[in-house]
Specification:
It is built from 4 helices and no strands. With about 100 residues, it is mainly alpha-helical.
Length: about 100
């Protein structure tokens, strides 16, 4: 189980790096607007995102963590909570954010 989790973590980190590099390439107009001073920041952001994806995937693939994670999403996306949240969320946004 541990080897499978590590393989999934490496794959998630790799996908994260590729997606971030593609977004940097697209967002900088094919590197035409990419300043040389930003190379360090870009490397740091890519390295941090890869590390975060790797550690999060390792953590979530452990059986107890996965059980809590999936049960939490099941509870959050349940019909009972959906009915309650559809009225609660606009009210909370209005009172806590806009008012």
């Amino acid at each position: 189980m541990e080897q499978r989790g590590r393989t999934a973590a490496v794959a998630a980190a790799g996908v994260t790096v590729l997606v971030l590099l593609v977004l940097i390439y697209i967002g900088s107009n094919e590197l035409a607007n990419f300043d040389a001073a930003l190379v360090g920041y870009a490397f740091g952001a890519v390295f941090a995102a890869a590390g975060l994806a790797y550690r999060y995937t390792l953590w979530i693939t452990r059986p107890p963590t996965w059980r809590y994670f999936s049960a939490g999403w099941r509870y959050f996306l349940s019909w009972r909570n959906f009915r309650r949240y559809t009225l609660l969320i606009p009210k909370v946004w209005w009172t806590d954010i806009f008012a």
